[in-house]
Amino acid sequence: MNWGAIDRYAKSLIKEAGHKIRISFFSTIDIDSKAEANDLVTNIDREIERFFIRRIKNDFPDHRIFGEEGFGDEIDSLEGIIWMLDPIDGTMNFIHQKRNFAISLGIYADGIGMLGYIYDVMNDDFYHAFKDEGAYFNDERLPVLENTPLEEAIIGVNASWVAPNRKIENEPIVEMVHKCRGTRSYGSAAMELAYVSSGRIDAYLSLRLSPWDIAGGIVIAHEVGAIATNLKGEPPHLLGQDTFIVARPGLHDEILRNYIKLK
């Protein structure tokens, strides 16, 4: 498998898709809800996913595609080469803010992340990684992350997990929030993964993410030494929804050990 050629192809495809998204703001954007009222999807999400699928299926007919909008393949195993795609991660931001969203793509071979991409469309910032070849922010190689104590850490966490909820004991999370240096919530798992990998924040956690949300970012995170697991400390589940944490080494263990109590 010529992974270098696939890497160049994927980067070109992502940049072309980003251009299509930017010019979409000059046209009508149709908004629908999925299962939940705030789980939004637009005609642009669907068009961009179809764009990727047409091109990939034409040029790599043996590859499978696991896409958020459901136009790809039915995926029940990680065998072979799978492109895990979220055409617009952060659709609510795309609709309301017209920024703070990303194209997220991970390319896996038999369950191993080979290539990872997160493209901040509006800022033209590209985070990308090639397994065992390092991770990059645009053309700048990202350094390996060092440990940061919780007291000096910025944590990415959604406020809904700090409030009482059905999934996790919120009081330890409140304690973590008080102890850390600060918290942030950007509304895009891919963006927060990119920010952990580039050192802009030190950890990110969520109680419900899908494979296409995290597949590209995990490849990037691994190349800089970040630890990515579910909230039980197990490898991320790439066939369905799961809890998720990515953090600097050391900090990951500290958060899981002292502040995560699942119900």
- Strand proportion, as a percent range, falls in 25-35%
- Tell me how many strands there are: 14
Main beta sheet: 7 strands, mixed
Largest beta sheet: strand ordering = 3-4-5-6-7-8-9
How far is the N terminus from the C terminus? 44 Å
Question: What brief labels describe this structure?
Answer:
alpha+beta, globular
Quick overview of this protein structure:
With 263 residues, this protein is an alpha+beta fold. The protein has helices at residues 3-24, 43-59, 91-96, 159-162, 170-179, 189-197, 211-223, 251-259, and strands spanning 31-33, 40-42, 64-67, 81-89, 102-109, 112-120, 125-130, 135-137, 140-141, 154-156, 182-184, 203-209, 227-229, 242-247. Helix 1 (3-24) packs antiparallel against helix 2.
Topology of this protein?
Layout: H1 3-24, E1 31-33, E2 40-42, H2 43-59, E3 64-67, E4 81-89, H3 91-96, E5 102-109, E6 112-120, E7 125-130, E8 135-137, E9 140-141, E10 154-156, H4 159-162, H5 170-179, E11 182-184, H6 189-197, E12 203-209, H7 211-223, E13 227-229, E14 242-247, H8 251-259
Parallel strand pairs: 3-4, 10-11, 10-12
Antiparallel strand pairs: 1-2, 4-5, 5-6, 6-7, 7-8, 8-9, 12-14, 13-14
Helix pairs in contact: 1-2, 6-7
